[in-house]
Amino acid sequence: MTITQEIDLDPGEVYQEIHEPEHVALVLEGFIDTVKQEISGVTGVESLTAAQHYLEGALRGSGSVSYTSVTGNEGFLSSIKAGALKAWEYIKKMFQSIWNFFFGKANKEEEKKVSDQIAKAEDQLKAAESPKVTPANVEQVVKVTGNQIKKLPAGSDKTKAESALDSIIADLKGGKSQPKSGEAKDTKPTEAASKPTEAEVNKVIPEVVELVKTTFSFSVLNSKSIKSNTDRITKVLGDLETRKKQYQEQSTDTSYGEETRKAYKVAVADVDGLLKIFASFDHDTSKIKDVAAAKHFVAEGKRVIEAITVTLNKVKEDSASVKSKMAVLNEKVKGTKDEKEENKLTDDLFELSCQLNSASAIITFVNAIRGGIGNISYALGDQCPELKEEK
Predict the structure, then answer these.
(1) Which positions ≥6 away from 58 have C-beta within 8 Å?
(2) What is the pLDDT of residues 138-151, one digit of tens each?
């Protein structure tokens, strides 16, 4: 087999999509099957494995090969050597997407985006924890809170908030009850009735503060963004637990070579490290009933992201070693003739498959967790009213 392309991975290149771990594993399996068949002198589409058929579809989907590039009923893998060349090139691109995640600008941009979301939420929640409502800005606060209440979905929460708002508005109008939306006004309020006394304003301020806090709680509980991102985190944590069990089984599978089993043990440790970070983090946002709880979530989310970054740096180091290994494999695949060399090459490829698979899994996890925490933090801050301290 002749594969002469060099590994050329430029950290400055455009970031490419990170594929799902299952996709990475199947592509590598298809490639390994292809290498084995080429070494054994097998040709023809009738001998293709399920993984090779998957690989063929992946290459067609990526544009690596086209339907017009072959003739008759035979696909590109009917020429095993040509199929291996295309597959190896595709595998290098998959690794390049992982490499660029760690060293390219997209990861740094995502880190900054989430950091900014958390910082803004911290400021907003700090201001909302003790709303500064004064006689000078009380009407502005009531107006802003009223706009928030309008955004709530129909239901008991909205009804309660509207009832409290109507009562406050009535008190601010000198005690005269105001018609609800859709009701006709009986008489135009007098100028005197429209201006409450200072004592009446001071009396209603605690009610306004309580309404601001209640509206925040209702808004959080009814936020679609918060719920969807919470569900996203829950799913990815479950997926990671499943991934850990899978890697544990593969780390003791004697059908793999020693180095491959070691690679899976490393993958188990990396995944377990991420799961331990979450052991003390309660991401159940349905428990956020007030601003204090929201502040706690954001603070814990910030801690989790910082800890994840440490683990990610370790995986980054592992990926650097994979780069060197791929360069070596680029030479090995050129021509293995005896059984000993063939078995070593197969072991090396399975080890590579493990490393790419686990790196892809960890990146998928980090993207989902980091993005989920950032989006939830942003949404929590977004539920805080912007209060102006008017003089």
Answers:
(1) 23, 26, 27, 30, 90
(2) 989 999 999 989 99
